[in-house]
Amino acid sequence: MITTSCGASYERKEVALNSAIQPRTSLSYDKAEVMEESKVMKSVEVETPTVERKIIRNANLNLEIRDLSNISEKVNKIINSHQGFIANSRKWTGYNNRKFYNFTLRVPEEEFEVTLSELSQLGKLLREELSGQDITKEYIDIQARLNNFKAQEERYLELLDKAKDVKDILEVERELNRVRINIEQLEGTIKYYDNQISLATIRVNISEPEAIINNSSNLGFLKSFREALRSFIKSINLIIVLIGALIPWLILVAILGYLLYRIIKKRRS
Questions:
Q1: Which residues pair with 57 in a beta bridge?
Q2: Would you tell me how many other CB atoms lie within 10 Å of the CB of residue 69?
């Protein structure tokens, strides 16, 4: 009895599934029926393959190197030896003619660790930052949605082959275009993720050591000394002008004081 019951249950499930995916015998349906077909296809579970963990790896390196004359060639040699490439590079000169380099490198994921090690040996390592973004769940979800839309595409193609009425053809084509747009978007996302996973990104910032004493600082010291000397001479000039302006008043005060002294002395005598 148990075997018979299980067999009957399995047969009912199989019949229900077959009825869901078999094409209609009549194609005289309206927009509501087309939307019902879409709902039926969305309800059919599509088996998604098991995928390994998807990790996007990134690294940031800050290096200090005294001689930057051939640094671009050295970085290019290391990255080429590990089947990578330079995605972007920049060079500029900062304060006190200090040189800076910035490289964005892409290298296969399996060569990530050894490439980092060799780059770190180019100079003094100031900072190293490593990060890994696990996108396994997002990747599986997108893959499942993509498989579902591809199943819907096949179903709509079958309906399109059997459609004879113009209205039915246009309605099916509209739904088919919608499904294909979603397929293209999801395939683009998966392609982007595959690129980020297979190729790790390494950003390298390289700079010259900052000089403690240099020509510009000496020039600044001389300039400051000259400014101080100029200010001192200017103060002397101001003092001389001030004394020159006060001399007539000092003479007048001296004369008045002498006369007052003579008068007081004469009265006492």
A1: 132
A2: 9
CB atoms within 10 A of CB 265: 9
Asked if 139 contacts 51 with a C-beta cutoff of 8 angstroms, the reply is yes
- Distance, CA of 239 to CA of 3 (rounded, Å): 121
Q: Which residues pair with 200 in a beta bridge?
A: 107
Helix and strand numbers (H, E) in the chain are: 7, 5
- What pLDDT does residue 244 have? 81
Query: What's phi and psi for 59, nearest 5 deg?
Result: -150, 145
Mean pLDDT of the chain: 81
Using CA atoms of 148, 150, 153, 158 in order, give the dihedral in degrees to the nearest 10: -100
Pick 179 or 37 by higher pLDDT. Answer: 179
Q: Do the Cβ atoms of 120 and 63 come closer than 8 Å? A: yes
Residue in this structure with the two tokens 């994921």, named with its chain if needed = 109
| Burial (CB count <10 Å: 0-12, 13-18, 19+), residue 60 | middle
State how far the Cα of 255 lies from the Cα of 34, in Å rounded to an integer.
122
CB atoms within 10 A of CB 259: 10
Q: What kind and span of H or E run contains 215?
A: helix 215-268
Coil, helix or strand for 40?
A: helix
Torsion of CA 46, 52, 58, 59, to 10 degrees: 170
- Residue 13 tokens read as 């499930």
The amino acid that residue 202 corresponds to is I
pLDDT tens digits for range 95-152: 888 899 999 999 999 999 999 999 999 999 999 999 999 999 999 999 999 999 999 9
Q: What confidence score (pLDDT) does residue 28 get?
A: 40
Q: How far, in Å, CA of 46 to CA of 162, rounded?
A: 24
Asked if pLDDT for residue 261 goes beyond 90, the answer is: no
